[in-house]
Amino acid sequence: MAINTPITIAYGDGIxxxxxxxxxxVLHAAKAQITTETIEVGEKIYRQGYTSGIPDDAWQSxxxxxxxxxxxxxxxxxxxxxxxxxTLRKTLGLFANVRPCTSYYPFISTHYPHxxxxxxxxxxxxTYAGIEHRQTDxxxxxLKLISRPGCERVVHYAFEYARKFNRxxxxxxxxxxxxxxxxxxxxxxxxxxxxxxxxxxxxxxxxDIGTALVATQPERFDVIVxxxxxxxxxxxxxxxITGSVGLAGSANIGNHVAMFEAIHGSAPDIAGKHIANPxxxxxxxxxxxxxxxxxxxxxxxxxxxxxxxEEGIHTADIYNTQHxxxxxxxxxxxxxxxxxxxxxxxxxxxxxxxxxxxxxxxCYGERKRAVATKVLVGVDIFLDNATDSxxxxxxxxxxxxxxxxxxxxxxxxxxxWPQITGEISNIHHCCxxxxxxxxxxxxxxxxxAEVLRLLVKLNQLGLDVIKTENLYTFDGEPGFTLxxxx
Length: 486
Ligand code: NAD
Fold this sequence. Notes:
This protein is of the alpha/beta class and 486 residues long. 31% of the residues lie in helices and 22% in strands. It is built from 13 helices and 20 strands. The chain has helices spanning 16-29, 43-47, 56-65, 84-91, 148-164, 182-194, 207-216, 228-241, 279-291, 295-310, 330-339, 390-397, 448-460; strands at 5-10, 34-38, 67-70, 96-102, 116-122, 132-134, 140-142, 169-174, 201-206, 223-226, 249-253, 258-262, 313-315, 326-328, 374-384, 405-411, 414-417, 429-435, 465-474, 477-478. The chain has a 10-stranded mixed sheet, sandwiched between helices. A 6-stranded antiparallel sheet has the order 17-16-18-15-19-20, covered by helices on one side. Strands 6-7 form a two-stranded antiparallel sheet. A hairpin with a 4-residue loop joins β11 (249-253) and β12. The radius of gyration is 27 Å and the shape is elongated. It starts with a strand and ends in an 8-residue tail after the last strand. Bound molecules: nicotinamide-adenine-dinucleotide (NAD). Nicotinamide-adenine-dinucleotide is lined by residues 15, 19, 72-75, 85, 246, 261, 264-270, 276-277, 280, 317. The site of nicotinamide-adenine-dinucleotide (NAD) has 20 residues, from loops.
């Protein structure tokens, strides 16, 4: 007899209990080999004073089962509440967000009948580290952090996913024409890893034209891999154009734990009305079954669900006069799927997830490579400069250090000294770049003590230092960008 896989379930808020009850009914009717343990997450837990939305004992369940099937939750506004999803992703190391986007034309109306793409979004880094500061009265910053292991994990995952699911092409989307270092790293890692998968076509597009193409020619894409913020926006664009926002599920994959959920929210406007569509969570459960190596059950359920759509049994959100035969409640729709377990769709191509083909993909991003020699060669000192013109400021600070030369002053990336290169509306937020020499090819080492001495002198002049950023070379290559106009 097969051994049941323990999974943790969380009903969540709003329509969460209705759609998880429906999903579990289908899983049990299909004889999924699972046992469930329930945890409480979401609004009630936030109100009990857990700002993360998850109580301490829930983590123990996840450490036992390593799998979470979760209903959507309501994040209360204000009050310092943190997004539960972001907390789960980061705490559990869920590095890849996998979101299939498929058209179910003609039963679900869409202008794009042939969409079948999968977005794999990096899930832990980028601006989603949420490291933000107010630096001057009117300027705020958000740090964008991209690491080599973070890129390697998700890019490697995307290629492994493509191979396992018989997909032909992986497209990488970045904005490395502007963010040459952070997005540039993502693109470089993509190019490196692509060479290990000669059987899969690899392409890179700048994310703006890439998103425009997803919105207008989605059929040209197969698997897309992209950093966190772009992936977040893009996956909603892709889901929306298939007309199936209420139908899509997503997987958040880590090496030890994985979380499965619908892409929509808790829909408080329809909670308790028995009209919620359980398809998004059910499709997430299909992804879960594949992940826990029960592909036969995944196949059984997805085919029964496709058959139900084809037969025009539709919940209110997807009901249309042309193809719907029955406006079904959540419970009736669920029952219709259960009744069709074992049947194949006739319009849609039946799915067939093969046994043994989808072993869990583990990606650690710890490729061996020589560690670069890192040398301190300068410092960017950011000031809140309320009073001085660029020339006055330069006169004050350019002779403060014997070993560090003032190279340039910039304001939000634009050079304002030695010459102003554009029209400047606000120079409160400015960055004074000091280097050991002005010649980038012959930068010489400095000590951090020299930086500290310079900072003390700036402080003695009454200047408001808001931040410093050390300038390094790595194997002789500058690890920093030049200012616009430098
Ligand atoms: P939503 O996705 O909950 O609802 C948007 C619209 O779609 C509503 O009209 C709703 O009735 C409808 N809808 C959504 N799912 C449906 C379904 N399964 N069947 C039928 N209709 C459905 O988005 P929202 O209103 O912006 O957010 C509501 C709450 O959900 C917010 O508190 C938000 O923070 C939260 N949220 C949670 C998650 C999550 O837990 N993963 C994701 C997104 C939003």
